[in-house]
Amino acid sequence: MEELQQEMILLFWLMGVNGAPILLAKFAGKRFDYPIDCNQLFFDGRPILGASKTFRGFIAALAISVLIGNILALPLLTSLLFGALSMAGDMISSFIKRRLGLRSSAMALGLDQIPESLFPLVGCQVLLGINAEQIFSIVLAFFFIELILSRILFWLKIRKTPY
Questions:
Q1: 79-107: string of b/e by CB count within 10 Å (b at 16+)?
Q2: What's the whole-model pTM score?
Q3: I need a surface site. Which of 36, 45, 95, 149 has the fewest CB within 10 A?
Q4: CA geometry: angle at 21 spanning 19 and 22, to 5°?
């Protein structure tokens, strides 16, 4: 039962970190909406990350990660690392999507869910005391819950797209 509880907590943490930028974007509008890639183009002529990856979203994700980590009585550096790795996974998936010619916020099944959940779990595996089976089950759960939640957030007019 303890492993299941730990997995549920980590899943909640991932959802919080990955949901914070979306919620903040809805409520803050365009305020402090500065793209991380500074609207620069890669050598292929496409955006490096795209307009939806912002400093505001990155900071929101880190803040929520620290808040949840604090509630879980985890060290500050672990909380920051967890949030930063999740956002790194999200940014890498955006980078790959731009190379594939997909627009910002376009659906890429798996690519939109796996890196942002896998990176922090693998990167913090030792610090969190989790094993490969737990990582697999959390990533799988995140994958399905994120697909469902995205549609709900779209229906509630919080997300611009249903994915």
A1: bebbbbbbbbbbbebbbebbeeebeeeee
A2: 0.94
A3: 45
A4: 65
